[in-house]
Write a structure and sequence with these properties.
- With 340 residues, the protein is an alpha/beta fold.
- The protein folds into three domains: 44 residues, no CATH class; 138 residues, Response regulator (Rossmann fold), CATH 3.40.50.2300; 139 residues, Rossmann fold (3-Layer(aba) Sandwich).
- 44% of the residues lie in helices and 17% in strands.
- It has a six-stranded parallel beta sheet with strand order 2-1-3-4-5-11, with helices on both faces. Strands 7-6-8-9-10-12 form a six-stranded mixed beta sheet.
- Helix 9 links the parallel strand 6 and strand 7.
- Helix 1 crosses helix 3.
- The protein starts with 8 loop residues before the first helix and ends in a 9-residue tail after the last strand.
């Protein structure tokens, strides 16, 4: 006969041969109080017993909703999907649910979401901001746990989890010059105060300065297909028979620009190299495979989850790091293997 009796925290503790306090600490993400062996043992027992914390009871006891909001600029983008998945992997065992919102990078839509979440009393917010609502985020940080991910805004009560955009953008540009490309064309959007765009552009410019090469920056409107066509045409008209590499500020730009570049009929990697920030799944299956910058999305998601849980559980921002920078990795593939 099947036993439908609800599994309790006492059952988990009994099976794991640990105290209820230890299980509670595990559920709240306080792993520093236990060994890795104990943590894995509790996790396996929770999975085997299919234990689910009583989120409502936990929330009432601690005056919390046990809900964390996540606001991203494009939920279909691989970076965002990976971060959300990593957040969930940490939050779910701790008994927290995720409310996910897609701002589409729109200032007003993001602002509306933030105002709504503020009134819903969520316990915290992880946000990939469009950069235009710093005033509202500053006020929210005084009331809720707040972590900015990917895009940085310096707010005293909040943490930023970002990658080393400027350095790795410098690295890929420097690599392209040293490989032998005469020009490196940087394709981006208008900065509009978005920290990732500013930092990647700065890295590109510093590499041009170091190599004593002329900057070539193409800014396009990602929502306008004609913008991609005109960018490709300007490149075709001005390449002057020299080898050149096109480096896009993110994978979405390369995805949209790539078909127009193919129509130019120019061989890759010689004379045209291709590289992009981000390392989407399709980068390794293009012809030739695409040189890219792989961001540590899983690590960023897990770190953001850890920081937001610490803030929620302690209710304090003391000792909370304002800025956490995780390194990205340059992945060199055949699209930039310039042959003499």
């Amino acid at each position: 006969m099947v036993n439908f009796k609800r599994v309790t925290i006492e059952d988990v503790a009994r099976e794991a041969q640990v105290s209820i306090t230890t299980v509670s600490r595990y559920l709240n993400g306080h792993y520093e109080y236990m060994s890795e062996k104990t943590r894995m043992k509790i996790a396996n027992i929770i999975q085997r017993l299919e234990y689910r914390p009583n989120i409502m009871a936990q929330g009432l006891k601690a005056n919390r909703t046990k809900q964390i909001a996540v606001v991203v600029v494009n939920i279909s983008y691989p970076f965002c999907a990976s971060v959300i998945r990593s957040l969930s992997e940490v939050m779910a065992p701790a008994g927290y649910g995720l409310l996910v919102f897609d701002s589409n990078g729109d200032k007003q839509r993001e602002r509306d979401f933030l105002l709504s979440l503020r009134s819903q009393n969520v316990d915290g917010i992880v946000i990939q901001t469009n950069g235009a609502n710093a005033d509202l985020l500053q006020n929210i940080s005084k009331e809720l746990a707040l972590v900015m991910i990917d895009r940085r805004i310096d707010i005293a009560n909040a943490a930023n989890v970002v990658t080393n955009n400027e350095q790795v953008s410098y690295d890929v540009t420097h690599y392209l010059f040293t490989t032998g490309y005469e020009n490196v064309i940087y394709v981006t959007e208008m900065e509009n105060g978005v920290s990732t765009r500013e930092e990647r552009l700065r890295g590109y410019r510093n590499a041009c300065l170091k190599a004593k090469r002329q900057e070539w920056i193409e800014r396009l409107d990602k929502s306008n297909e004609e913008s991609y066509f005109h960018t490709a045409e300007r490149i075709r008209k001005n390449m002057n028979g020299q080898s050149f590499a096109i480096y896009t500020a993110n994978g979405l730009l390369m995805l949209r620009l790539y078909p127009w570049l193919q129509k130019l009929g120019i061989q890759t990697p010689n004379p045209m190299g291709l590289a992009t920030f981000d390392d989407p799944d399709w980068a390794s299956v293009t012809t030739p495979p695409l040189t890219s910058i792989r961001q540590p999305t899983e690590e960023m998601g897990r770190l953001a989850a850890k920081l937001i849980l610490e803030k929620v559980e302690t209710g304090s921002t003391e000792n909370m790091p304002v800025l956490q920078i995780l390194p990205s990795e340059l992945i060199i593939r055949d699209s930039t293997m310039l042959k003499d």
